Amino acid sequence: MERLKISDVSTYVEENISTFHRKRIDGLNDLKLKTVLKKKNPYLFRAKYLLTAEQIVTVLADAFISSKEETIFGDWLEGLAIFINEKVYGGRKSAVQGVDLEFDHNGVRYIVAIKSGPNWGNSSQIAKMRADFKTASRTLRTSNSQMQIVAINGCCYGQDNNPDKGDYFKYCGQRFWEFISGEPELYTELIEPLGHNARARNEEFTASYARMINKFTHEFFASFCTESGGIDWVKLVKFNSGAETT
Length: 246
Hints:
This protein is an alpha/beta fold. The chain is built from 10 helices and 5 strands, in the order ααααβββαββααααα.
């Protein structure tokens, strides 16, 4: 075990955070208004008394972007966690399906599935993770039947005060970052490097976001507004929910 240097973490963040911001902007550029409209509830727009094209466009775009960003940043944090664990325990990105990180410590092989937060999946998704852990354990034991394997669901933020789930452990927030690094305060120390130059990095995203809102507002007005300027709710609902005819 090696002691983690926070300077190594800062360097990694500095060199790799641009990947997160680039994917955010790429996600904006790939968005299509009508694709997003198909996935949102038009009745909710009406119930919330949204009266302008820009209001509707902003609400649906922000909801979509928020969900997309959570996924993108979750993937980025996974890479950071693997980097940190490699520095301390010699861990590595796992080649086993359903497992993100593998490392050995005190005679135990840990297999880790990394998620963003504690409420990441429904019962079916959790059942699949359990099945993946079992399959991974069988696979790893083909080369060493006596290998002691412990499965971990690691969550980058949040809390779970009952980590023992029977066939695996769930470590969230501070517990997770300490588990992979041996450093109890790492979860707070990450905040500083992540915020470095954040304002400058977000300027390009803000400009792309503004262009997208303007473009979508123009497109929405042309497609779903009446000549007098009101929203054609019937046309919008038909577009979203009408049965397709052959």
